[in-house]
Amino acid sequence: MTTTETATTTVGHWIGGKHVESASGNSAPVYDPALGIATKQVALANEDEIQAAIASAKAAFPAWSNLSLTKRQQILFSFREILNRDKGELAEIITSEHGKVIDDALGEIARGQEVVELATNIPSLMKGEFSDQVSTGIDVYSIRQPLGVVGIISPFNFPAMVPLWFLPIAIAAGNTVVLKPSEKDPSAAIWLAEKFTEAGLPDGVFNVLNGDKLSVDGLLTSPDVESISFVGSTPIAQYVYETGTKHGKRVQALGGAKNHMLVLPDADLDLVADNAINAGFGSAGERCMAISVVVAVEPVADELIQKITDRAATLRIGDGRRGCDMGPLVTKQHRDKVASYIEVAEQDGAVVVVDGRTVRPDGDENGFWLGPTLIDQVPTTSRVYTEEIFGPVLSVVRVATYEEGLELINSGAYGNGTAIFTNDGGAARRFQRDVQVGMIGINVPIPVPVAYYSFGGWKNSLFGDHKAYGADGVSFFTRQKAITSRWLDPSHGGINLGFPSNN
Ligand code: NAD
């Protein structure tokens, strides 16, 4: 069976509350990574379809933004119930296009659901401030209002969670949305749109536009789009930030990562090894918060590497629907790119301790397999160290002291997440203050903040001033007005050309 013969259905758009087939004639294959075949196509929108999605959101904005907070809140509550009820269905969809194992797909849905739950509290989150009697008979207060049409552009690695980082707060705050999902796994976004409609969301409030760079550029340059929330690789994040802001938009653009785990000599090495496996190889390393470098403060490296090696040998790699620990990579192209770093490591004089190229998966031989890979003594000049690999490749760099480890982490181009493993509270506290990274774990390997904090890194991991969700999310999706109010009283008559002052 050839690739094209299997790809009979085409994932279209969701515009104005319904499925819209694409007339563009352009499409891209969507693979089942565990089978290694294209199971469907995804439409790539043309200019007319891009404008139709934006127009749909624009038309829905006046009524949606004027709906009471209570009514918007009730739709969020309904959506939360539907998401929770049908999450198994969504997990199957995610696994069939992304490849991650079902449990992991359920995990990303749970983290997305947290933000939905946060957004059900929108009446409190959007509260303004009030100052009584700032001057005689004068009060000052602030209100928050939605922006209008907001664009969300998401990556392949969390096809449900990343849209849900933004969507619930954007919608609850009264905005209308055009979401451009990754063309590698577009079906989760359409599913979310169907379920929001079932929850009572009016047509046009949430639109899904499938497409490629043309769609992204359409959102970035449209005068009708007020803001862009982007998550993806650093070069595209930077492009999106620069292009969007040049067109007068508010932009938050989250980029790539290279996350280090600093292991101090007093750490519990069994705990560290368990966590290095979970954070290095979970979701086949295709997480922006994955640990990709273990920085071992000597003398722990030999013992730790042995423990990680022993554990890696027990992992079952295979089809995510078969109860395996780790699934395939998202595409053949990406699998081959990740595997090529193992060759680079060999050429650069690193020691390949566990080689994922020899994996024997529990799955179809055509799947995009690469097993867990552990590489010791990685030179910090090697591309294996300097570049984001985004696969199940864990590097070990040995350092002599805490200071050397800290310096290494702080000299990196990214600043998304990091973790320290130690039993020394003083060292951990020093680390949390000194490290130049946005999200820090203390004996926690993947410190993704809960929904009521905000998610985002520093340096090349985030372009813009606002992180995702939490207080930053509410701030991003609303504009504040400050109102100075006086109800007329005869005692305030008379002309005064002086600058207003508070007395
Ligand atoms: P990507 O940058 O290739 O794609 C992200 C989005 O941008 C997709 O919707 C894609 O269609 C679009 N896009 C791709 N090329 C484009 C171009 N030239 N012009 C305009 N738009 C373009 O990223 P990906 O491979 O889907 O996702 C993996 C990357 O995302 C990794 O670098 C990972 O670290 C990062 N990521 C970061 C976070 C974070 O919170 N910082 C979270 C998840 C993923």
UniProtKB/TrEMBL annotation:
InterPro entries assigned: Ald_DH/histidinol_DH (IPR016161), Ald_DH_C (IPR016163), Ald_DH_CS_CYS (IPR016160), Ald_DH_N (IPR016162), Aldehyde_DH_dom (IPR015590), MeMal-semiAld_DH (IPR010061)
Gene3D superfamilies to which the protein is assigned, alphabetical: Aldehyde Dehydrogenase, Chain A, domain 1, Aldehyde Dehydrogenase, Chain A, domain 2
This protein's name: methylmalonate-semialdehyde dehydrogenase (CoA acylating)
Pfam families attached to this UniProt entry: Aldedh (PF00171)
Keywords linked to the UniProt accession: NAD, Oxidoreductase
EC number of the protein: 1.2.1.27
PROSITE patterns, per database record: ALDEHYDE_DEHYDR_CYS
CDD domains cross-referenced by the UniProt entry: ALDH_F6_MMSDH
Domain of life: Bacteria
GO-annotated molecular function: oxidoreductase activity
Aldehyde dehydrogenase domain location: 20-483
